[in-house]
Amino acid sequence: MSGRDGSSAQVAAPDDGADHDTRFFGQPWALAHVFGVEMWERFSFYGMQGILLIYMYYSVAEGGLGIDKAVATGIVGAYGGTVYLSTILGAWIADRMLGSERVLFFSAIVIMCGHIALAVLPGVAGLGVGLVLVALGSGGLKANATSVVGTLYAPGDPRRDAGFSLFYLGINLGAFFGPLITGLLQSSIGFHWGFGAAAVGMALGLVQYSFGRKSLPASSRTVPNPLPHSRYLLVGIIGVVGLLAIAALVLTGVIRADNLAGVVIVITLVAAIAYFAVILGSRQLDATERSRVAGFIPLFIVNVGFWSLYQQQFTVLTIYSDERLDRTFGSWEMPVSWINSINPIFVIVFSGVFAAIWSRLGSRQPSAPMKFSIGAIIMGGAFLLFLPWANGAANSTPLWAITGILLVFTIAELFISPPGLSVSTKLAPARFHTQMIALYFLSVSLGTSIAGWLAQFYDPTNEVPYFTILGFIAIGLGVALLLCVKPVLALMRGVR
Q1: Superfamily for the 31-218+226-491 domain
Q2: Which is nearest to 482 in space by CA: 415, 408, 387?
Q3: pTM higher than 0.85, yes or no?
Q4: How many other β-carbons are positioned within 10 Å of the β-carbon of residue 207?
Q5: Does 22 have pLDDT greater than 70?
Q6: Domain boundary assignment for the chain
């Protein structure tokens, strides 16, 4: 028997602080606990997001809020961007005050409260309170769950990429079942029942994680760069002033529903530039660490482009599925949100295949820059695949066509997202471990916000320019990185 809970016959493992257990499909058993809470968090997150846009733009008579579609897509993009933007706050609290594992636990509680607010509070007030809580909680959970997974592996452990792919499988199990359950409840008995199901899912994840969190390695609770207690009051004051400033901007009309996506884009861009400047300018970094952070910049840019297209599953593709997709089977019409469960099916099927391929190839697998470039090119190609059905009539696009396009989405995703999570932990300086992962999620935040902003330019009567231009931009980004693989690898100093 091997593992952290093994008997006296356990073979001594290297004393490197990592988990050498192999009981969870060849990975550390502790991975199962993070796998579980992330799975249920994604169930609640994608379950809620699957019905969020239509909840906003459906009429009041249909159970919605009657918000203009362009404004609603912008809100969805801004909300999604804020989720990833708040990873900065979660990462900072982990690195300076509580450690990743504790932030993960408390964030799960905040998420559950947000879904409860969406389920029980009526109208725009419930929407606002719920989305703010879910965004803050999800941001805290995402970066820190990834960081905790990273603590399970020693530097150079060949299982790392496969472990992250397995972790990604948990994400997509939740993402698959969430929209199915919430969509079925929404279409049969109402939106708030769907939001309630998301709250129940997060509660299940919280209970499961509560029982398993003690078995995680001590390094998951380490505070890498503790904040002096004398500065806690100052941090609290800054936080209160920040909240008051946001409230003032909202009350004076500077921040409005119709410009929310643009505001989040600007904030995220400024935050990313500032974050890179702070890390690169830190005197605590040696030359190798500084070079590796610089090597992450091209990956960051390509990742923004990828997520700008990929996250349109929750903006343009939701509208497309509601109005243009043939969802009828006899007399039964499939709920709109079920389209969001197609991509996770493919991820569930192919994440294991990709994990096996990367494990089999070992050191011969493509480098991270190569994977990113291939993923961006494939993502651009997926948008070009919309063109044969462009400008069609209502309900004219067959379900098999969208299914095929989402398969291409998935292949692109598996070239970028799990390797992106993994390479961010490999390139992270010791003192900026979780914050480097937050930088990765900042690229997702920026891309997600741009996805919501771009949706305003989508015209169902003239789709060709939209899909063509965005498709070729993504392909161009991928080709540019492909041509720069060698210099980027040189900056990464031995990390692939």
Answers
A1: MFS general substrate transporter like domains (1.20.1250.20)
A2: 415
A3: no
A4: 13
A5: no
A6: 31-218+226-491
